[in-house]
Amino acid sequence: MRRLLPLLGMLLLLAVASCRPKHVPPVDGHDDLQQIRDSNELVMLTLYSSTSYFIYRGQEMGFQYELCQQFARSLGVKLTVKVARSTAQLIHMLRRGEGDLIAYNLPITKEWKDSVTYCGEEVITHQVIVQRKGTPRQPALQDVTQLIGKEIHAKPGKHLNRLHNLNDELGGGLLIHPVDNDSIAPEELIAQVAQGKIDYTVADDDIARLNTTYYPNLDITLSISFDQRASWAVRKESPRLAEAANQWHRDNMTSPAYTASMKRYFEISKAIPHSPILSLREGKISHYDHLFKRYAPEINWDWRLLASLAYTESNFDTTAVSWAGARGLMQLMPRTARAMGVPEGKEQNPEESIKAAVRYIKLTAKSFSTIPEPERTHFVLAAYNSGQGHILDAMALAEKYGKDKRLWYDHVEKYILLKSNEEYFTDPVCRFGYFRGIETYNFVREIMGRYEMYKQKIKE
User: 3.40.190.10, 3.40.50.720, 3.40.50.150, 4.10.410.60: which CATH number matches 127-226?
Assistant: First the structure.
């Protein structure tokens, strides 16, 4: 019996080993980087956000995602993404071996320094006041003392806490307005500042920078907190991976790919300038009216609705390229354009673009076949802007919270708007994570409003 015990022990160890996750932490002395190369896979751990990782029109995007993708290519391996629900879960998943690298601006703290090795580019983050740009008669605030007597709106959490602490530091006088966490998404507060509905809110500087590409009238120069250092992180047992990440960042900070990603998220304007109707006297909306009239019947749309969609997407500019890479008159993403039959190199051809968009709209409409018209058109337009996954998430949220998932206005649109709110995009009924829903919310309303105007101005 004693002779059998070592054999049984060995069998038990083999059984346990066979059940271990693929990405186990390497043992001492093992080459952690070679292990990744041998598996041909780098597993990125991150959180959903507008600057780290999100799904847009069916494609993975995000600044941190693009950097990690470039890093994986430098290692000669493919990238796989796993999304956590919190920074604490990121650390837990990393230490359990569920991923190789946290590609997210993870705060550098004494607590986590004992658990992980920080690596890559060290960034400095802080909280800022979001306000409109000043004028000679009314300049923007430049000092925190000028906030005394000003009304500042903020959501519960670190931003509201910082305002209360700042109020104590200043001896009182700030007019702080907490915003109910259920009623509004973070991006909407920033939009309200840009639109003049409120004067001030608070945001992290990277989120604020990104939003200036949507709203160029914003001023985000007034800092109200100390700097917080942040970077990527790996396990303590992955020194060679940390070294490779450090070296990659040093070598690529000025590379064309890195610069292009930085510009895409933080510099390129995401607002399309729009022009009026081509000619009311001649009854023309654009130079492509004959194509809208030819292809709109294939989806049972009024050609003026298809024209309104094109106007919103590209301002009838066949050479337009969006910050996300969408191209042409109908602004189809490259993968979608190929799938819908646009020949390579023909993305700027107006007829090819319209034909492909009509095919895509027809397929999308089938996905919402249980929703009767005219509501279905609203859902199709929304999905054209965001991708179907986020609309399905918003429908699930609407149903969960007592709204009608087959009605768009004031029902599902409310929850697409809230998909940039962590409380909602981390809800178990959501499968596609963070989304900047204010774009889709405005997209549908703008297209339908312009369509009504076209019907009044341009007769059949």
Answer: 3.40.190.10
CA distances from 229 to 65, 105, 110, 303, 453 (A): 19, 9, 12, 53, 50
Q: How far apart are CA 400 and CA 385, in angstroms?
A: 23
Helix axes 63-75, 239-252, angle to 10 degrees: 110
pTM of the model: 0.84
- Specify the residue for token string 């030819």: 294
Structure tokens belonging to residue 109: 């703290």
Token look-up 């178990």 returns 428
CA distance 132 to 135: 9
Angle (CA) 432-435-436 rounded to 5° is 170
Domain boundaries, the chain: 17-120+229-266, 127-226, 289-457
The DSSP symbol for 280 reads: T
Number of H helices, E strands in the chain: 19, 12
Q: Is 180 strand, coil or helix?
A: coil
What number does CATH give the domain 289-457?
A: 1.10.530.10
CA distance 320 to 186: 29
Rg (CA), the chain: 25
Find out whether 144 and 170 touch, Cβ atoms under 8 Å.
Answer: yes
CATH class of the domain comprising 17-120+229-266? alpha beta
Give the CA distances from residue 301 to residues 296, 362, 450, in Å, rounded to whole numbers and listed in that order.
5, 10, 15
Bridge partner list, 231 = 106
Query: Tens-digit pLDDT profile for the chain (460 aa)?
Result: 434 334 334 333 334 333 334 444 544 446 899 999 999 999 999 999 999 999 999 899 999 999 999 999 999 999 999 999 999 999 999 999 999 999 999 999 988 988 899 999 999 999 999 999 998 888 999 999 999 999 999 999 899 999 999 999 999 999 999 998 676 877 889 999 999 999 999 999 999 999 999 999 999 999 999 999 999 999 999 999 999 999 999 999 999 999 999 999 999 988 777 676 677 667 899 999 999 999 999 999 999 999 999 999 999 999 999 999 999 999 999 999 999 999 999 999 999 999 999 999 999 999 999 999 999 999 999 999 999 999 999 999 999 999 999 999 999 999 999 999 988 999 999 999 999 999 999 999 999 999 999 999 887 6
User: Do 17-120+229-266 and 127-226 agree at the fold level?
Assistant: yes
Max Cα distance, the chain (Å): 101
